[in-house]
Amino acid sequence: MPQNLAQPDDLEIVERRRDIRIVVSLAGRYTLADHRNARGERRTFSCRAVNISGSAIALAAPVIGNIGERVRTNIDHLGRLDGAVARVLSRGFVMSIAASEDERLRLLDRIEWIEKHKNHDVQELRATNRFVPANPSSRLVLATGMTLTCLVIDLSETGAAVSADVDPEIGTVCAVGTIVGRVVRRFVGGFAVQFINPPRREEVELMAIVND
Questions:
Q1: Tens of pLDDT along 156-207?
Q2: By residue range, what is the domain housing residue 33?
Q3: CB 180 within 8 Å of CB 204
Q4: Distance (Å, rounded) from C-alpha 111 to C-alpha 62?
Q5: 106 and 144 share one domain
Q6: pTM, whole model, 2 decimals?
Q7: Which residue in 7, 20, 180, 190 could disulfide with 163, CB within 3.0 to 4.6 Å?
Q8: Do 100 and 174 share a domain, yes or no?
C-alpha cells in the first residue's frame, strides 16, 4: 500500500482531534471591526478565553460585537486568532476561528499542550498579590451615573485592572462593582483603578464582582 495513503485509524484520530474542546482561563486582547476610535482605528479590549476548540473560542468580554462582525484576538499561549462573532453570550461571545487546515492542526497542537499543562502552571505573584477572579465579568459605575459591563482583568486589595467600553482620563472616579477608586493608569486594552478605601483581602472579590 502506498505510504501516503491515510489509514482508517489515522482518519479517526484526525476527526477526534478536530472535536477537542477544553475549558481554560487565558488572558488576551481583542478588536472588533465595527468598534473604532475617533481616528478610525480598531479599539482594543481585554478578554478572557474560557472555552476553546479547533473551530471556535468563547470569550468573557466587556464589549460584544454583532453576529458576523470580524474579530481579531491575541490569546496567551494561543497567539493571534482571526474570525467572526458566531454567538452572543450574556457576558461575552463565541468567535468562530478562520484558519487553513495546517493552521487549525497547529492550533489543535497548542490546545492539547494547554490541556496537558494547565493544572501545573504556577502563577507569579506580584508584590500586591494580584489574582484573577473566578468570574471576571462585573459592572463599572462612573461618577456621572453611567453603568457599563466590564471585565476585571485582575484584582488585589488595593486596586483592579479593568477593561470596558470607555477610555477614562487619569484621575477619573469610578466604582468597580461596589468599590470606589480612581483611574491611575491606562494601558492597551484597559486601565488600572486604585481603590480609595481598600477592602480586606477576603472581601475584595465579593465586592468587586457584581452582576445584576
A1: 999 999 999 999 999 999 999 999 999 999 999 999 999 999 999 889 999 9
A2: 8-117
A3: no
A4: 24
A5: no
A6: 0.81
A7: 190
A8: no
Pairing of strands 21-36, 147-155: unpaired
Rounded to an integer, the average pLDDT of 10-18 is 49
The C-alpha angle 58, 62, 151, rounded to 5 degrees, equals 95
Torsion of CA 132, 136, 138, 142, to 10 degrees: 60
Task: Provide the pLDDT confidence category of residue 121 given band limits of 50, 70 and 90.
Answer: very low
- Is there a domain that residue 129 lies in? no
15 and 108 co-located in one domain? yes
73 belongs to a structural domain: yes
Q: Kindly state whether residue 40 falls inside one of the protein's structural domains.
A: yes
DSSP 7-52: PHHHHHHHHHHHT-EEEEEEEEEEEEEEEE-TTSPEEEEEEEEEEE
First to last CA, the chain: 63
165 and 78: one domain? Answer: no
DSSP, res 76: T
In-domain check, residue 122 = no
Within this chain, do residues 14 and 113 fall inside the same structural domain, yes or no? yes
Q: How many domains does the chain have?
A: 2
8 A C-beta contact, residue 119 and residue 25: no
Look up the CATH number of the domain holding residue 153. 2.40.10.220
Could you report the per-residue pLDDT of 51-74, keeping only the tens digit for each?
Answer: 999 999 999 999 999 999 999 999
State which amino acid sits at residue 96.
Answer: S
Inter-residue contact 71 to 57 (CB < 8 Å): no
Please tell me the distance from the alpha carbon of residue 140 to that of residue 88, in angstroms, as a whole number: 21
Place of cell 473551530: 55
